[in-house]
Amino acid sequence: MAIKEIPTEECYMPGSAACPGCPATMALRIVFKAIGKKMMMIVPACCTAVIESMHPNTSFNIPTMNIAFEAAAAGASGVEAGLRKQGKDDITVVAWAGDGGTYDIGIQALSGALERNTNFIYICYNNQIYSNTGIQRSGATPYAAWTTTTVGGKTEYRKEMGEIIQAHHIPYAAQACISYPEDLYKKIRKAKQMKGPKYIEIMAPCPPGWRFGMERTVEMGTLSVETGAWALYEFENDEIKFNGISKLLLEEKIKPKPIEDWIKLQGRFRHLFIPKKDVKKLQEIQDHTNQIWERYRKCYL
After folding, report:
1. Closest CA to 170 of 203, 144, 196, 194
2. Beta strands per DSSP E along the chain
3. Phi, psi dihedral angles at 139 (to 5 degrees)
4. What is the C-alpha to C-alpha distance for residues 279 and 75, in angstroms, rounded to an integer?
5. Three-class SS of residue 23?
6. 24: exposed, middle or buried (C-beta count within 10 Å: 0-12, 13-18, 19+)?
7. pTM (predicted TM-score)
8. Structural domains in the chain?
9. How far apart are CA 153 and CA 196, in angstroms?
10. Per-residue confidence at 55, pLDDT binned at 50, 70, 90?
């Protein structure tokens, strides 16, 4: 599809409280366009709870329920059950949470909702930190990244949430990125048309949290895919299909850019370059990325 085929109607309105260059707002616009106004969105504590703007105003032209940090999937399950009881089967229920509310605090409610076969779309916009509460480490934070709770760099690798979701054997799961709006739009549209639980995770580079200029948000998302730090794929009925550049990387038709090309533009990794380049740690990160892709090839080719 072409970008011009995406609907022009906006449900994301002026007046939000988002940071300049915010990736969540880019993703929200595409999600709203893909689903339309017949949706109900459940938002836990996260950046989006602020982006909505301050009561009594809102920048979302759709019904939205704010709920506790750990309860996005549980709240969505209740909303879906209530709509089903009323015979309203034309409204798409969407849980929209950050990586903190998905990988960590909300994983128990999410796993339960998937197990119960809840008919909803769960969307995680992954900025790899608890950005709204002060840039703390989450299970999605990459190895060696600075946060306010890992001032010397995180000592663990990020959790492979996509593989955890796949273990639930749900009808549809996907990874997307704000830098590829057509890909994201198509995945949301596909999820909307399916019954049962659907999970979509969106790479969302955060300017203040990752420490880069607000004008580079799209570039940082593109580099995350081109270096292999993030993969675009769809998992449908227990079969996985990689998309776009990620498919070419998987099949080794193109070579990934060095992971350093992505890392060096982020201030959260500044300590790997100043006062001198930490070659050993950078190589560890590259080796780990390579290992992930070798596992992909072993499992999916």
Report:
1. 196
2. 39-43, 64-66, 92-98, 121-126, 172-177, 198-203, 233-236, 239-242
3. -65, -15
4. 46
5. helix
6. buried
7. 0.96
8. 10-300 (3.40.50.970)
9. 39
10. confident
- The CA-CA-CA angle for residues 110, 139, 64, to 5°, reads 45
Pairing relation of β-strands 172-177 and 198-203? parallel
Tell me the helices (H) and strands (E) count for the chain, helix number first: 11, 8
Which of 122, 101, 120 lies closest to 201, judged by CA? 122
Give the whole-angstrom CA distance, residue 127 versus residue 65. Answer: 22
Confidence grade of residue 56 (pLDDT, cut at 50, 70, 90): confident
pLDDT of 53 reads 85
Question: pLDDT digits over 74-125, tens only?
Answer: 999 999 999 999 999 999 999 999 999 999 999 999 999 999 999 999 999 9
Dmax (CA) for the chain in angstroms is 63
- Bridge partners (DSSP) of residue 257 are none
Structure tokens at 199: 């999970």
* Cross-strand partners of 41: 64, 94
pLDDT of residue 57: 86
Nearest to 197 by CA among 62, 80, 38: 80
Q: How far apart are CA 88 and CA 92, in angstroms?
A: 10
Q: How many CB atoms lie within 10 A of CB 148?
A: 13
Instruction: Name, in order, each residue with C-beta under 8 angstroms of 101's C-beta and a sequence gap of 6 or more.
Output: 44, 45, 46, 69, 70, 72
